[in-house]
Amino acid sequence: MNPFQYSKAKSADAAINGYMEHDNTAYLAGGTNLVDRIRRDVTHPDYLIDVSELPFSKIEKIEGGLRLGAMASNSDTADDENVKNDYPIVSEAILLGATDQLRNKATNGGNLMQRTRCSYYMSPHFACNKREPGSGCDAIDGHNRILSVLGTSEKCIASYPSDMCTALAALDAVVQIQTPNGGKRSLPLVDFRRLPGDSPEIDTNLKEGELITSIDLPESSKAFAKASHYLKVRDRHSYAFALVSVAAALVMENNMIKDARMALGSVAAKPWRDQEAEAMFIGKKPSRELFEKIAEKTMEGAKGYGENDFKIELGKRAIVKAFMKVAGLS
Amino acid sequence: MDKIEEKELWPEEKSLMKAEISRRKFITSATLAALGLAMTPYATLAAAPSNKPVNFASFVEINTTINGQNMKMKLDPRTSLLDLLREQLGLTGSKKGCNQGACGACTVHMGKDRINSCLTLAAQIDGKEVTTIEGIGSETEFHPIQVAFMEHDGYQCGYCTPGQIMSAIKVLEEDHAGSDAEIREWMSGNICRCGAYKGIVEAVKSVRDETYDKKLIKRTQQKVS
Question: Where are the beta strands (DSSP E) in A201-324?
Answer without folding.
Answer: 211-218, 228-233, 244-253, 256-265, 272-273
